[in-house]
Amino acid sequence: MEITYKTDVVPSPGQVIELYDSAKLPRPTHDAERIGRIYQNSNLIVSAWDGDKLVGVSRSITDWAWSCYLADLAIHEDYQKSGIGKKLIDITKEQVGEQTTILLLSVPTAMEYYPKIGFVKENRGFTILRTK
């Protein structure tokens, strides 16, 4: 398996929905228009491809100078535990540079994963949750 990583491609909503459903990432995959807006308004997308198949994605919103919110990290279920997630984050770090902090909110099932790849757990955050 040869995985290709890209920073210059925005996957289609259909590709993203298939990936998110496979990865069991809790996102509004029933709403292709909303998934499309999510991706059109993100400014750093790193994707992993096995040929023409989207097998992983790291989607972020960043100012390129201080902070980068890693909004989504998803790996297709058939490709998990093969280093793709770590590579996507490494490329994200390379893209935003050393002056930028990467932060994220983890789904409960990934809480053990992020410390293994270099993230530090923080207890200083706050959220206002969406209503829809």
Descriptive overview:
The protein has 132 residues and is α+β, with helices and mostly antiparallel strands. The chain has a single domain, classed as Aminopeptidase (3-Layer(aba) Sandwich). It contains 4 helices and 5 strands, in the order βααβββαβα. It has a 5-stranded mixed beta sheet with strand order 1-2-3-4-5. β2 (44-50) and β3 (53-62) form a beta hairpin. α1 crosses α2. The chain is globular, with a radius of gyration of 14 Å. The mean pLDDT is 94. This is Acetyltransferase (GNAT) domain-containing protein.
Q: Roughly how many Å is the radius of gyration?
A: 14 Å
Summed up, the domain count is: 1
Which structural class best describes the helix and strand composition?
alpha+beta
What proportion of the residues is helical, as a percent range?
25-40%
Question: Globular, elongated, flat, extended or rod-shaped: what is the shape?
Answer: globular
CATH topology: Aminopeptidase
SS element count, helices: 4
- The secondary-structure element order is EHHEEEHEH
Across the major sheet, the strand order is 1-2-3-4-5
